[in-house]
Every structure is written in structure tokens, then in C-alpha cells.
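ok here's ABC transporter ATP-binding protein, seq below lol
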Amino acid sequence: MKHHFLQIENLKKSYPGPDKDSELVIFENANFTIDKGEFVCVIGHSGCGKSTILNILAGLDEASDGIVIMDGKEISGPSLERGVVFQNYSLLPWRTALQNVTFGVQARWPEWSKEKVQEHSLRFLELVGLKGAEDRKPSQLSGGMRQRVSIARAFATQPQLLLMDEPFGALDALTRGVIQEELIKIWEESKQTVFMITHDVDEAILLADRILLMTNGPKARIAESVKVSIPRPRKRTEIIHHQDYYKIRNHLVDFLVDRSKQDISVLNPKDASPKIIDLAS
Ligand SMILES: Nc1ncnc2c1ncn2[C@@H]1O[C@H](COP(=O)(O)OP(=O)(O)OP(=O)(O)O)[C@@H](O)[C@H]1O
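and the structure came out like this:
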């Protein structure tokens, strides 16, 4: 059997329901794997449980059932091996851009000298185009710049798994495009494993190797795993001309409009592996 870097088995999250002994199942039987170095996006309607899955992978929330295995070990609690980028940046407001990055780097490698920590952190700020802004506090940075700091901070600690919850959701389209390309550059250099939530199908096609599609809750399931068969390096302006682009895009949009409403927990109560979709010409 193939060994996957990340293995999610029969994950379930439920909350107590309105009546005694009832439960509200957000999602159940979520099964998927991610290989080392893979970039995987997850798409699904609001409320289906994407952030909950990400928080469970981060160790910030607990599953009601099922397990998450990373590199052969079950995940329990947060760890520096898993970095998170949230939509609202979550920077420390009293620290400069550089100090926000060095904070994590120092914690990751306590044996490093101050110079080495600074040099390493600066390199990641430079990779996201923030050279020259390292001494500014978050309040002196634009939204796009703050999000770049949080991406630099996450990549700089070189976690084995990088979790991103709609990292570009609050940005305007132009800034978003620039940072997406910076993210691809930094990911191609670091080859880290990424799990990212997005609502934007074009963003998912640009960034991901594979896109997981979640049905609507309650009792949401991961229904499909769609391969993005467009070669890298990818550029936003070029991939739209690739012969597979609209096939993939239409498949994703059809899922969101139609198939996401299907209750596959009824159709398919036991075998919950996502259907593998490869639309390559
Ligand atoms: N404490 C709670 N009690 C009951 N239900 C909860 C609780 N916390 C979260 N939920 C429900 O869990 C569901 C999943 O929430 P989650 O934030 O994971 O969804 P999401 O797919 O990430 O949504 P969005 O795309 O809007 O961010 C939601 O329907 C939410 O109402």
C-alpha cells in the first residue's frame, strides 16, 4: 500500500443537536490523502465544514471521530510542523513585519544566532516582495502587505504542512493576482505540502495539483478529487488558453451549482473515498 504523507480517515465533526441526545453532523466519513509536496485546494459552499477540517489538521480543533495521520504519526494538538495562514493575517500588531517573521523562526530553531534568524526571515520577506518594508508595523502596511507578511512567516518556519484558510479572501483582485504568483514562486522553491481553502475556482486551478470538492452540510462529504492537469509553471494569463482549463472550470462550477446538493451519505453510506476525476485531454 502506498504511504501518503497525510492521511485523513473517516473524519467526523458533530455538535450537540437542539434536542436531548440528538447530534448535528457537520461532516462525516471524510477521507482523503495528500502526498508530500502536493498543493491541494478544497472548495465547498459556506458552512460545509472546510475551516473545521483545516482547524483539525492544525490541531486547533478536535474531531468527533476519525483520525489524521501525518508522516506516520497521529496528529494531536498544534505543532510547529504545521503552519497556518488565516484570512485575517493574525499578525502581532506591536511587532514590525520582520519581528513578526523572526518570532516563529526563533521558536522553530532556538539554537540559531540572532543574525541567522534575521537573515533567514529577511529572505522570506524578500521572496514575497517586502524588501524595504521590514521595519514597518502591521498598522503601517496595506492589507495585501500584511497578508504577504503572514505568508512569509508561515513559509519561513518551513513547516511540513502549510494550512491556508482563504488567505486572499480579503484582497482586491489585482493584489490577489500578484500574491498568488508570489505564493507559487515560494511554494515551487520550498516544495512544502499545502492544504488551502478557497471559494475561487480560478484561484484553485491556478494553484492546486488537486482540488477536493465538498458537498453541502449537514452531513457533508468530500465527494470528488479533481486533478488539475495543467503543466507548471502556470501563469494566470496563460492557463486560460490551455485546452483543459474550461473543462476543469466547468466541472467545478457544475459541482457547486448542482452536485454539491446531493446527499452522498445516503447514496453511499460506507465507501466514502472521493471519486477521482481526471479531465486531461
Ligand atoms: N459550536 C458550534 N455549534 C454548532 N455548530 C457549529 C459550531 N461551530 C461551528 N458550527 C457549524 O459548523 C459548520 C461548519 O463551519 P465551518 O466554519 O467549518 O464552515 P466553512 O465551510 O469553513 O464555511 P465558510 O466557507 O463560510 O468559512 C457551520 O455550519 C457552523 O454553523
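fwiw Residues 87-158 form one domain. kinda neat tbh
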